[in-house]
Every structure is written in structure tokens, then in C-alpha cells.
Amino acid sequence: MPDRIKKFLDSGALFIWFCGTAVAASLLMVGGVLLLIMINGLGFFWPHALVEMTLTDGTRVLGELKGEEVIPYSQTPEFPEGRTRVRLKVGNRDLYGLDFRWVDTDRIATADSPNDVAAFERREWGNFYGRIREVARGDDVVATGNQEGWKALQPLIERANDLHDEIEHLQRDVIGDINFEIEGTRLRIRELELRGQREAPEVSELQAATKQLETQYRKHVATLRALSRQLDEYSVVLVETNGSEKRLAVGQIVKALRPNDMGLIEKILRYFVNFWSVLSEEPREANTEGGIFPAIFGTVMMVLIMSVAVVPFGVLAAFYLREYARQGLIVRVIRIAVNNLAGVPSIVFGVFGLGFFVYAVGGTIDTLFYPEALPTPTFGTGGILWASFTLALLTVPVVIVSTEEGLSAVPQEYREGSLALGATKFESMLRVILPCALPGILTGLILAVARATGEVAPLMLTGVVKLAPALPLDHHFPFLHFERKFMHLGFHIFDVGFQSPNVEAAKPMVYVTTLILVMVVIGLNLSAVALRNYMQKKFKASAV
Amino acid sequence: MSSRIDVLSEYHQADTQVRPYATKMQTAETTMASTQRSQDIKPKITVENTDFFYGEKQALFKVALTVPAYHVTAFIGPSGCGKSTLLRCFNRLNDLVEGARITGQICLDGKDIYAPSVDVTDLRTKVGMVFQKVNPFPKSIYQNVVYGPQLQGVRRRSVLDGIVEESLQGAGLWEEVKDRLHQSALGLSGGQQQRLCIARALAVNPEVLLMDEPCSALDPISTAKIEELLHSLKEQLTVVIVTHNMQQAARISDLTGFFLMGELIEYAETKTIFTNPSDRRTEDYVTGRFG
Q1: Alpha helices in A251-292 (DSSP H)
Q2: Is A224 on the interface with B (CB under 8 A)?
Q3: Which residues of A are less than 8 Å from B200 in CB distance?
């Protein structure tokens, strides 16, 4: 018997089972995380049905059903399974104080989904669930009743959204440009002052230009005010399910939906519209609503700058260590140090980035090149460039290690063959070794991108913000604004999920942001993998 | 034939300065009204009193020999006897080895190749090399062949095309690959790859071709093709080949050097080495009694 056991153990069958189990467990965990994120994140865009309930005490509740659970410790002899309760998103934060409400199942007298209730997404105070009493223009009633009001409201909301777009355009592009120019002339004047040319003719010219710009500015602000007044022109009186009224300017409503009245196709369309608006819009309401476009943009741009910074550095360092340096104790120590650098906590890199890049380098750049803007720092404060550089520092060991591995995988015969043809060492490296090592280098890049996209802690010290006023890329010369602060998906998750006053309302947004962060990581990685495969095909064609 | 050996022994005794033997010999041979080939007999590489060290370990001991131009010279001997080391001294590929050190003198056309003024890359274009391990670059066939010429600054497409055809024809590969020049070189068979390496070496128009066991990884048919190639190659250049295969040395070479433990035991016409060696150890080796 022991013989058979020994034979079985020696056969390695058990070992194979262990290996398989390890792989299966890893896959299961990764798959579970992705599934959780996807279920919660993708469900967010679906127009959920509204439920109206009458409770045993006669009050009514209207909202989206968000889940059901057994009340903790409610098991009694009559209810061995415990009593249950449902969670509703009732919205109407301005009236109820809270968006969410628990209702014990046994208190529900009736529940149904009437077709005439609507969900109004508002610019402030979250959603309103209820019906329309009347639509008015100033004091004149335009339409009364839920049905009439709904019909009257649709074109008004569309018009209000157009107005909002117009205001947005005026504020951001037109007035933004004027402000940009005013700031530019102010800095130019300050620069001349610092040079002691206060009396130069250019100064008075600039001052005149500023005056002109300010006149323009005032004109546009007046237009803006007029437009804003138009937003308040129409108002709507909404009633919640218990009969309380709320008067609202139509301009406050982003969109109104009657989810119970929608067909499947309509809902699917709405799903994609919602998805797109989250991807493309800017956040509202302390980031808990609206879209996350600036965060996506900031994340991708930061990773791209990081890649551009980290690859040349890492590759050059690896080339030196592998090809030029005399292999000995010092190189070994350096290699160990590089490997250990990858294990340093990221917050330490953040502190270093703040001290070195932001204060030392950025501060010096400011005093040398932007003295006119001081005391307002230009580069001497957190910004996308410094954040990217800090992450580049964080990921450079990964690139060095994989490049070195790539280099050591290049057969010695290639080097000798190239040298024997009269190439110098540099030519051999450039024309034979580098192409062969490219897949290794790109593997390093893939790992670096994966690590950098998910990193948050160092960014908090070096330039990420909750809400950035402008993207780091726009139409103002020089188009790329490396000094600007930026938004980041990882920080967005932290901020929305854990720093927001209304955590329950923000929860879907956290899942959505997580989902999109994962998608961005996968997207960036896939493009790097595609690049690597292309290179491999080009340089390592297999035998036919 | 015997006169050639006499000439060679004369070289051995000669001093290390640039010597006018070639002309002297030519006139001598002309008077003998010999063939065109024997007129060309002149020393290509002369090795004088050379010691070679890998760090502390000495790999060559007082080696001295002369490689005649337009002949195939073979180095034979058991593994680790220093024959490859000597070969790699001829194009200074041993410079790459850390701790390598050489004393004595190796001259190409009478010029010391280890002199400080020598441009190593220049030397290597004159002295090409084919390796034991087949090593075409992971590029297309075309790019492999033009690698050397491009390094020398040849950019004109028409010139490169000409070089590619000429070199591949020189290596007997043209007919097999002319339709797929732009496919990966790694798609070729082992023997074809080795001939591509020969073509690649020929593309820079070398004066000497060093071959370090070029057939040891190849099948007999590919080996035969390469051996055949050597016969035509020696019309254009000087070949030095290291081989483990004594039949191969006997078949292809004009002169053979037998190495043992870093020493050149015997260096003579191939026929002499294999039929009537003067040293006992050579005889033991070539008859298979040892090694």
C-alpha cells in the first residue's frame, strides 16, 4: 500500500492538481472582482422602473427599488426566516433630506408601477420622483395636470438644455478665451515692470488692450445673464407621491423620464445614451452625478506622458547595465537596488515627487522662467507633468528589469555576427540588439502602464484634484498644458466613494468609475500588447 | 607543390617587418612558369610567437604560422586546443572577452592588426567570419545580406540589389531564395541559413573568410554544398577554417595545422599531415588513436 501511495506521489498527479487549483483560484478571484464591478457598474445606466407603494399607515412611497434584505436579528418564532425589508431610492432630497429609504416588507399594503410617474434628473438636489401639477411661464399657467404638463414640458427641457450648452460655450470658450488673454497681458505688463520698463510704450498698449478685453468681457457677461434669466422663464410645479409640491425652474431639469412607460427598445437606447453621457460629460454635484470625462482624459494623458518619460530612461539604463557596464559587484548591487526600488511604497515616491519635482525643479523653473506670475506658482505646484514624472520614477525599475531580460535573451551570436561584419558596438545595438529586445521593452511598458494607471497615492501629492477647471489639453497655445492640475479615475473613486457627503447616492458612480478605470487599463494594455505582437511578428518571424 | 612548402618555411624564419617576399616569390614562380594559382602564393596572415590568455588561463603557446593567400587553411585538433581562439584573434573578436590578453604579433598583409592605429571595424570588414552556430539576424534575407554594406554607407538601392545577387550567388543560395528575398531569414533551413551567413560575410567583400566549424550543426547534404562552395571561394579570397571533422579537413584544405593544448604541433600541406606527419601526436590524432 505505501508503495502505491509513493508511486502516486512520485507520478506528480497531485502536483498537477495543486497547480490547476492555484490557477483556478486566481482566475476565480479576478473573474469575481470583474463580475462584481460589471454587474454594479453596468446596471447603473439602465432606466430602472419606479415603484409606488402604499404603506399600512396610509403614507405613500415612490422610488426605484434598489434591493431587498433580511432585517438583521429579526428571526422570531413566527418568522423563523426573519422579516425582510426593501431599499428604495426615493430621491427628492430637498423634501425628504435623504435619497434612500428602507421599508419593511410587512408594512407594504399595495405596490404597483404606474405609467404616469416620472423621474426628473435635476442639476441640483439629485433626482425628483413624482408627477407634474402645472407648467407655468412666469405667473401664467401654460399647462395643468400630469399628462398635459408632461407634453408641455418635453420641448421646454430640450430648449433649456440648448440654453445650457450655449451658456457653457459662452462661459468656457468665449469668456474663457478673453480671461486667458487678459491674464496673458497682465503677465506681460508684470514682466515689463520687473524688467524696469514700466514706462515702455508697450505697457500702455497692453493696458489699452486689457481695457478693450474687459469691455468685451462685460458685454459677454451681460449676454450670459440674459441667457440665465431665460432658463428661469418657465417653471414647473411637481408633486411628490404624498402631495407635497415643489416649484422648479425648467432650466434645473436635465432630463425627465417615465421609465414605466418605456418599451424595451426605448430602454436599451436610453441605456446607451446614459452610458455615453457618463463617458463624455463633466461631473456635477460634487462629482456624484454627471459624467467622468475629465477623469478619463486626465488618466490617459498622464499614462501617455509617463510612458514617454519612462521608456527612454529605463531602456538607456538597462542598455548601460547589460551592454556596457563591466559585470561585477557594483552592477550586481545596482541591479538589486533597482529591483528593490520597485518595492518602495508609492506614497514615498509621492513625497519625493512633491519635494523634488514640484518644489525643487518646479520652483526653480518658476523663478527662472515665470517670475511675472509669482507668487502664484506655475510649475511650482502639482501638475500633470510632475505627477507623470513621479509615476515614471515609480515604474522605471519595471522597465529596466524587463529590458535587461529582453537584452539577455538576445543570442550572443547576433552580437558577434554583427561585429564580425564590421559594425561598431553602437551600430550592433541599434540595428540588431534593440529590435530583438523590443518585445522585452514593450513588456516592461505594459507592466509600467498597468501599474501607473492604478496608482493613486503619489498623485494626491503631485497634482491630482477633485475637480479640475480645465483639461491639460486645449486650443490655447502651446496646447499641452503640463503645469495644469488634472482629474484621475483612481482618485475619483476615492473622492466620490469615500469623501462625498451622500455616499449611498454616490455608490453607483463609484462602480461606474471603477468599471471605466478597469476598461482604460485594459485598453491601454491591449494597445501595448498589440504593439508588441506587431514588433514580434516583424522581428521574430517564425520558421515557415 | 614542394616549392610552396619551402616558401612557407622561409616565412616562418622571417622577421616581423613588412617583407617583400610576395614579389620575390612571384618572380621566382614566374620563372618556373607555373600555373596562375601558384603565382598568387603570398602570405596573407602571419602569426609570430603568439601567446593568448583568458585571464589567468593561457590558451595559446608561442604559436607561429603563415596563412597563404587564396588557399584554404584548416585548423584541426581536439576541443579546447585553441584553434578557435586563434581564429578569433584574426578578426580581433576576442577583444570582446573580458580579461583576454595577447602577446606576439599577428599581421594581415604584413601589417600588425593589434597595432593601436588599426581600426577594428575596418579590419573586420577585411576579415569576415562564419560561425559555428548559425546566426542570421531576425530580419529578411535581403536585409541580412545588405547589413554589412549598409554599415559601410552603401545606400543606393540598385547597388545593394547587385550586392545581394552577387553575394547570394557566391554562396550558392541565389537560385533557392531569389523569389523570397524579403521573407524572414529564419524561415530558411539550417544549411540555407549557414550559406546566407556566408553570403552576408561575402557582401562586404572580405579578403579573408574565417570559418569556425561552419558545418558542425548541419546535415551531410548541406555540408557537402558548403564544402563545394569553399573550392570556388578560394579563387576570390583566403579561407581559414576550423573543423572537428578530419575528413572534411582532408577534403577541402590545402594546408592543415594541428593544434594540441594551445600549441601548434604541426603545420604543413594537408596531404603531408594526413599521410606522412612528422610528429607522433599528429599521427595519433589523424589516425584516430587519440582525440
Answers
A1: 264-280
A2: no
A3: 417, 421
